[in-house]
Write a structure and sequence with these properties.
The structure is a homodimer.
Chain A lengths: L5 E7 L3 H12 L3 E7 L3 H9 L5 E3 L11 E4 L3 H14 L5 E4 L5 H10 L5 E2 L1 E3 L20 E4 L7 H13 L3 E4 L2 H28 L3 H5 L4 H10 L3 H10 L1 H23 L3 H21 L1
Parallel strand pairs in A: 1-2, 1-4, 2-3, 4-5, 5-6, 8-9
Antiparallel strand pairs in A: 7-8
């Protein structure tokens, strides 16, 4: 057997993503040992007992010194604050990466904490409805994209080693410019969630709203599922990617007003043109895969 | 074997819903013969060759006289215009029902065409992404709701016989006040579709919109599926249920503005309160079933 890609991987935040990466990387022989750092005692017990990690700790102090890779898999709002501590406790050649779904502010903090380019900002496009380490799966990243958003500071060799880990667990590596990443995901991920939350809030705010919900079929059920996912996580994402979200919201409001005007004016042709255009988007998405 | 509930059922518009009802009612022995009336020649050939119906015709003239039940399963915009013709060609004891997803205007036209109360306005809550008779299935209505919206004019015996047909194909019968039906479905079906269409239109209208779509994961894919369904059908529904849709759109816009204000102001607590409320809606829907 060849040597693993990393001797010791420290996963900070052993939830769905961190836990799945631990499982997948161990299964594929990509890492020697995994240490799990988590502030939640029940999670620590669970991931140690299940063998998902080899060692656990409730803090960074002293536990990072043996790692040659640190993966930050905490909520996005906590990433930037952790990076200086990771720089302080990790050894001077250790690579550091994250899995946050907003990249601009985290990349800036990572470059500041690791001016020699050892921080690699990443975003695996994977998830499940359930969260926490009990939802972790070794196959979570198979046939997904792992997006990497290097800066001019990022060390290309560091990027290549982290990319090899993600390829090893089944993901395709896609490089994107960080600001463009945050614009794209504001549109294709953050906005849809915001719209789903607004829709559920609106139905509940209507007269006899809960009674209406009992008649939900196809359409609303999909939205309800989207809107049921992790309010804290989405609060943090919405606040962290605020500027891009406000920008796509403006475009969305214009589209909605265009549909509303056509309905109000009874303009079937204008309505049909707008509804048919949306169908093209589906084809665009479907042809991609 | 007991006598069927209806000797001859005429299905006007043999698409997904009309075709599925023909299949299901024949399979359950609820109807003796089925005649399919459709303006689409390819559909007529298909439904006759497959045995979905016993006879076909391209118009109402003369073909309705033997029917003791006429089911209108054409697009909602065509229902009201057909009802006087059905009254003209059907025999004087024939029951008439429809499957339209907007009820107010259709019920008014039905009551006008059948002042003796033989029109029963209904709405089966069932569907598939695909449409047309080739998508028809005998089990489409199993464990679904069939909503009936009687007026003061509707004959209770007519209602009971039509309800027996829908129960016989596996649906539960739910009676609703017609205006309340149109309010409820504006909220839980029409608005979600409108919102999904607006979202897809908005992403396409953004700079490099098609490129963004290539990164769609969970959230947007669900919306794209919703927005890909039958633009003509949705145009007609949006126009026919216009007043109710404009009303729920106002509430929706307020909910969206509330979320936007919280994001703009960086108000995490207000945002969290709104996102958590949406989760309650999910529980409401889930506990229903």
């Amino acid at each position: 057997m060849s040597a693993p890609l990393f001797r010791e991987m420290a996963v900070v935040g052993v939830g769905l993503i961190g836990g799945s990466l631990a499982l997948a990387a161990k299964k594929a022989g990509l890492v020697g040992r995994v240490v799990g750092l988590d502030s939640d005692g029940a999670h620590r017990e669970m991931v140690l007992a299940s063998g998902m990690v080899d060692r656990v700790s409730d803090g960074l102090t002293g536990e990072l010194s043996a790692a040659d890779l640190v993966v930050l898999a905490v909520p996005v709002a906590e990433m930037a604050g952790l990076l200086p501590d990771v720089a302080r406790w990790a050894n001077g050649t250790c690579l550091v990466t994250d899995v946050g779904s907003v990249k601009g502010p985290i990349l800036a903090a990572g470059d500041a904490a690791f001016p020699d380019g050892r921080f690699v900002a990443g975003h695996p496009i994977a998830g499940r409805e359930r969260s926490g380490p009990a939802a972790a799966r070794a196959d979570l990243f198979e046939e997904t994209n792992w997006i990497v958003t290097p800066s001019t500071r990022t060390d290309p060799r560091a990027l290549e080693r982290v990319a090899a880990l993600w390829r090893g667990v089944g993901a395709s590596v896609v490089a994107m410019e960080p600001a463009w990443h945050d614009e794209v995901f504001a549109a294709v991920s953050h906005l849809p969630h915001l719209v789903a939350y607004a829709l559920m809030d609106a139905v509940l705010a209507m007269p006899r709203g809960e009674e209406r919900l009992k008649f939900s079929a196809g359409g609303l059920r999909d939205f309800a599922r989207v809107a049921a996912s992790h309010p804290r996580m989405w609060r943090d994402i919405f606040l962290m990617n605020r500027d891009q979200i406000l920008k796509v919201l403006t475009t969305y409001r214009e589209a909605l007003e265009g549909l509303e005007a056509a309905i109000r004016g009874g303009d079937g042709d204008a309505l049909m043109a707008r509804l048919s255009r949306a169908r093209l988007a589906r084809e665009e998405i479907t042809h991609r895969s």
